[in-house]
């Protein structure tokens, strides 16, 4: 019985995008909530959010690259 490795990699990457997708939703939502509550710190929150978004996107790219490596 032969396994379809390409199909498994596609499913694996699809599952790997769930974590970063949920993480981005929570991160951006909480930042907007913080900006609404304290508009005077909006600049700091925005900067911190973009740093967090970069780290979360790295997770998505790692999942994408892992599909090609393994």
Short description:
The protein is built from three helices and no strands.
Topology of this structure?
Blueprint: H1 5-16, H2 18-37, H3 42-69
Helix pairs in contact: 1-3, 2-3
Total of helices: 3
Dominant shape:
elongated
Query: What's the end-to-end separation, in Å?
Result: 20 Å
Question: Percent of residues in helical segments?
Answer: over 70%
Radius of gyration: 17 Å
Which class do the helix and strand fractions yield? Answer: mainly alpha
Largest sheet: none
Q: What's the number of extended β-strand segments?
A: 0
Show unreliable segments. Answer: none
Strand content: under 5%
pLDDT averaged over residues:
85
The arrangement of helices and strands along the chain is: HHH
Domain V-ATPase proteolipid subunit C-like: 9-69
Organism: Demequina sediminis
InterPro entries: ATP_synth_csu_bac/chlpt, ATP_synth_F0_csu, ATP_synth_F0_csu_DDCD_BS, ATP_synth_F0_csu_sf, ATPase_proteolipid_c-like_dom, F/V-ATP_Csub_sf
Subcellular location: Cell membrane; Membrane
């Amino acid at each position: 019985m032969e396994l379809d490795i390409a199909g498994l990699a596609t499913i694996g990457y699809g599952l790997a995008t769930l974590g970063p997708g949920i993480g981005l939703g929570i991160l951006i939502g909480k930042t907007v909530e913080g900006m609404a509550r304290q508009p005077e710190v909006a600049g700091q929150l925005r900067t911190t959010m973009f740093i967090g978004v970069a780290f979360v996107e790295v997770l998505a790219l790692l999942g994408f690259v892992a599909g090609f490596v393994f």
